[in-house]
Amino acid sequence: MKIVAIAxxxxxxxxxTTAVNLGCALAERGQRxxxxxxxxxxxxxxxxxxxxxxxxxxxxxxxxxxSVIDKIIPTRSERLFFIPAxxxxxxxxxxxxxxxxxxxxxxxxxxxxxxxxxxxxxxxDCPPSLGILMTNALAAADEILTPIQCEYFALEGLVKIVRxxxxxxxxxxxxxxxxxxxxxxxxxxxxxxxxQVVAEVRQHFGKCVYNTVIPRTVRLSEAPxxxxxxxxxxxxxxxxxxxxxxAREFTQRHGAPASLRAASHTAASEIL
Length: 272
Description:
Shape: globular
CATH class: Alpha Beta
Distance between the termini: 16 Å
Helix content: 40-55%
Strand order of the largest sheet: 3-4-2-5-1-6-7-8
Strand content: 15-25%
CATH superfamily: P-loop containing nucleotide triphosphate hydrolases
Largest sheet: 8 strands, mixed
CATH architecture: 3-Layer(aba) Sandwich
CATH topology: Rossmann fold
């Protein structure tokens, strides 16, 4: 199992869109996926039509008073599971900051999933900030996947992410953390700027940048308001095609075949 933090301290770059649609596309390919919404704004939660669910968040596990296993809920996709978020997570961020092990609370909460190995990938949808929740995600993750909008300040945001990764390593919270990939999002083929930004990011970060580029489409923007992934909302459109292609490239990079797991009797699998 790999834990992947989908993170960028800049808002509006496609983090939640990527977490939800990449997760759905990987599940469609046969992977067992858990998406964790770590943003108190709960955009990933509403994007999957789960906004009415309350209490099934990481608030209690982060504070050591509950198990992450009890917070996992199924989705409409057979192999896709989810842990929602709500505004309580904002309060958890304040409480965690007072704890001596404040950087590793999430890593401790997710450790049971590493032992269980029910999932192939856990995708952490991080908030757009450099606060406690995001640093906890980076301390718990094996790698970081960074969506970057095809705009002028893209490289500036990437430099900040690289610094944060170095800080997490230097703190001792997670010395194995690495940038696993960069995904260029909101690509507008009608402008020269988008192509120039992609070329510049590739020049600086090379093979770290995914070949797949996510286009800017109206359908991708509309899908969350219907509580659906783009694969459900517009399965034959450009957005769905791009995220399926990204999922294929993601799987190839990680060298993991689609897992067809038999039913087991481990703690997590019993509740799925």
